[in-house]
Amino acid sequence: MAPLLRTTQQWVEKYRPRKVQDVAHQEEVVRTLVNTLETGNLPHLLFYGPPGTGKTTTALAIAHQLFGPELYKSRVLELNASDDRGISIVRTKIKDFAAVAVGSGISGYPCPPFKIIILDEADSMTEDAQNALRRTMETYSKVTRFCFICNYISRIIEPLASRCAKFRFKPLHEDIMLGRIQYICQEEGLDLDQEALSTLSRVSEGDLRRAITYLQSAARMYGSSISSDNIIGVSGIVPDDVLKRLVQACKSGEFDLAHTEVTEIIAEGHPVSQIFSQLFDYVIQSTEMSDEQKARVCERLAEADKCLIDGADEYLQLIDVASNTMRALSNVTQECTYF
Amino acid sequence: MLWVDKYRPRTLDKVMVHTEEAQRLKNLIAQGDCPHLLFYGPTGAGKKTLIMALLREMYGVSAEKVKVENKPWKVEVGARKIELELTTVSSNHHVELNPSDAGFQDRYVVQLIIKEMAKNRPLDVVGNKGFKVLVLNEVDKLSKDAQHSLRRTMEKYSAACRLVLCCNSASKVIEAVRSRCLNIRINAPSRDEILDVLLFIAKKENLVLPPELAGRIVLQSNRNLRRAILCLEACRVQQYPFTKDQVVQTTDWEQFITEISNDILNEQSPKRLFLVRGKLYELLTNCIPPELILKRLLQELMKKLDSELKHEVCHWAAFYEHRLQLGQKAIFHLEAFVAKFMSIYKKFLIATFG
Ligand SMILES: Nc1ncnc2c1ncn2[C@@H]1O[C@H](COP(=O)(O)OP(=O)(O)OP(=O)(O)O)[C@@H](O)[C@H]1O
Ligand SMILES: Nc1ncnc2c1ncn2[C@@H]1O[C@H](COP(=O)(O)OP(=O)(O)OP(=O)(O)O)[C@@H](O)[C@H]1O
Ligand SMILES: [Mg+2]
Ligand SMILES: [Mg+2]
C-alpha cells in the first residue's frame, strides 16, 4: 500500500486570526465589531476590498465570537461563490433561514437575538438574485443580519449596499505586512534577510494571503534560509531585465526586434497581464517619456488589459501593445496610414 | 506507443529538461504535503510530464495505475437536475479532468468532485486522514463563474484535497485563484535542450541522426518539445536511413494556411475573399481552433510585409481575435480580418507602385 500523505495545515489557515481583535490594519471595522461584542448591536455589513486583506477572516471571526461553536450552525449561514445562489435559492434556502425565529442563547457567548447570513464573494451573484434579496432583507431584519463580502463594491446593487454599514478593507501597509511576516518567520523558524523581507512585501502588493503563500512555498523549496531571489522565484513576477529588453526593443524602432522579444516572452511563459502591469509601472515612472507618449502607451495598455480579461490571445495583445509603444516612442502618428 | 509517450520521463529524477523545477518540486513535497499548485506555460513545454512525475513522487507507482472513465454525472442545482457526461482519469490518489468539457456547467462539476473527495478521505491504519489530488487541465478555459467558485472552496477544503491546476495562459486565470496557489512557470525548453532530447531518443532507437536534420527539426519546432519529438518520429516513418537534406514536413493545416496566405497576397478582391472564406471554413470544420488559424495566418502574411505595414496588420489581428472571443461565429471575424488585410494591402500597393 502506498504511503498515506497526511495534511499539514496550510500556513494561510494556520495564521488566520480567530478573533476580530487580531485582524491587522482594518481598525474601523474592528472597532465597530468589538463594540458589537459588548452591546450585541450589529448593522447589516458590507465588506469590500482587494483579495487577502481579511474580509472573510473578519466575518467568520465575529460570527464565531458571537455564537460560539455550539450555536454556530443554527445561527450562521455561510454561502460563497461555490454555492448556488441563484434566484431560486434566494427565495428558498436563504429566505427559510432568515425567517426562523431564534432560540435562546447559551452562556459564555453574547448570543444576540438574531442570525447572520454571510454572503461571501457576493460580486459573483447576479443582479436578479440580489434584487430578490431586498425583500428578505427588509422583512426579516429583526431576526437576521446580512454580511456581504466582495472585491468590487460596484457589483453590489445600490438598494442592498445602501442598507449596509460599509467597510473598505485596505491593502495592508508595508510595515504591517512585515510585522505579520516576521511573526510567522519566528514561529516557523525561518531566516529572511532585510532584502528578502522587503521583496516579499513588495511583490505581495498588500495581499497578506499572497505573502504567506509565497513564504511557505519558498520555505518548502529552498529551506529555512530564504533569499530575495527565492521569493522572486516563487512569486511569478517578471524579472526586471525581461521588461528592460522589451522596452529597449521598442525604443529601437525596429519592428522585428520587438517581435523577437514578444515571441521570447511568450515562449518563456510569462503571464502577459503581469507584463502589462509592470510595463505600466515603468511608463509612469519614466523620466524620458513625454506626457503625450505616456498617455498613448497607457491608453492601449488599458484596452489590451480588458481584452485579456475577455479572453483574447496573449501573444496578439502583447505584440499590439509593443507596436503601439514603439510608435509612441518614435512619435509616429497614431492613425493608420492605409486605413 | 508514440515516442512522445514512450520517452516521457516518469519520475522527477529522470526529467531531461526543467531539472531545476523538478528538484524544487521534490523539496516541496519532501514533508509529504504541498500547497495548491498552478502550472502554466506554453503548449508542449512539459507541464503534464512534471505533474505526473510529481504524483508519482508523492504516491509511488500506484499513482500510475490509472483508469479512464467516461461516466455520467448528476448534479442537483437547486430544484433542477443536470446530467452530463465527462471523462476522468483517476488513480486511488488522484482524479484528473478537463472541466471545460462540461461547458457552462463546469462550475457544478468541479464543486461536486471536490465535495466528493472531501467526503471520502483516505485513512491510514491508525486513522489519520490524508488527502487526494485533483488535477484540473485547461483552467484558463474554465468559465469565470467556475473560477470564482474555486476561491472559498480552495480554502475550505484545503485539508481534504489539493488542487493542481494546469493551463497555457496564466493571464486567463483570475487573480484570486492565482494568489491561492504556488505558481510554477514552465517555459518552453531551449533549442539546445530540445536537441539533447532528440539525440537521446535517436540513441535509444539506434538511429543515426544527422546533425543538420536534427537542427532543422529543432528550428521548426518553435521550442515546442512535443512537436519536435512527433516530427522526428514522422521523419523516421518517412524515410530511413535519414539524409541530411530530407524534408521536415509541417502539419497539413499549416501548409494549408501558407496556401491561404499566398492566395491573399496574390489578389485582393471580393472574389478572392470568397475563395479564402471557403478555405477558412474548411479549417474550422476540421476543428482547428480559430485563434490558432489567425495567429498562423498573421505569421505567414508578415513574412512578406514591409515593417510599416506590420504594425497595422498586427493591430487588426489583435482587434479581430478579441472580437472572435466575444462573438459566436468565428468565421465572421476571420473573414473580417482577411477583408481588412486585403484593403490595407491594396492601398499600400497602389500608394507604392501606383
Ligand atoms: N488583516 C489581516 N490580518 C491578519 N491576517 C490577515 C489579514 N488579511 C489577510 N490575512 C491572512 O490572509 C489570509 C486570507 O485572508 P482572507 O481570507 O480574510 O482574505 P479575503 O479578504 O477574504 O480575500 P478574498 O477577497 O480573496 O476572499 C488569512 O488566512 C490570514 O492568514
Ligand atoms: N522534462 C522532460 N524531459 C524529457 N522529455 C520531456 C520532458 N517534459 C516533456 N517531455 C516530452 O515532451 C512531451 C510533451 O510534454 P507535456 O505533455 O508534458 O507538455 P504540456 O506542457 O503538458 O503541453 P500542453 O500544454 O500542450 O498540454 C512529452 O510527451 C514528453 O515526451
Ligand atoms: Mg474571502
Ligand atoms: Mg498537457
UniProtKB/TrEMBL annotation, chain A:
The keyword Signal does not apply. Coiled coil: none annotated. Residues 41-172 form the AAA+ ATPase domain. Pfam families: AAA, RCF1-5-like_lid, Rep_fac_C. Transmembrane segments: none annotated. SMART domains: AAA. Keywords: ATP-binding, DNA replication, Nucleotide-binding. Belongs to the activator 1 small subunits family. PANTHER family: REPLICATION FACTOR C / DNA POLYMERASE III GAMMA-TAU SUBUNIT, REPLICATION FACTOR C SUBUNIT 4. NCBIfam families: PRK00440.1. Heterotetramer of subunits RFC2, RFC3, RFC4 and RFC5 that can form a complex with RFC1. This is AAA+ ATPase domain-containing protein.
Automatic annotation (TrEMBL), chain B:
Pfam families: DNA_pol3_delta2 (PF13177), RCF1-5-like_lid (PF21960), RFC_C (PF22534). Residues 33-192 form the AAA+ ATPase domain. PROSITE patterns: ASP_GLU_RACEMASE_1. Keywords: DNA replication. InterPro entries: AAA+_ATPase, Asp/Glu_racemase_AS_1, DNA_pol3_clamp-load_cplx_C, DNA_Rep/Repair_Clamp_Loader, P-loop_NTPase. PANTHER family: REPLICATION FACTOR C / DNA POLYMERASE III GAMMA-TAU SUBUNIT, REPLICATION FACTOR C SUBUNIT 3. This is AAA+ ATPase domain-containing protein. The lineage of its organism: Eukaryota, Viridiplantae, Streptophyta, Embryophyta, Bryophyta.
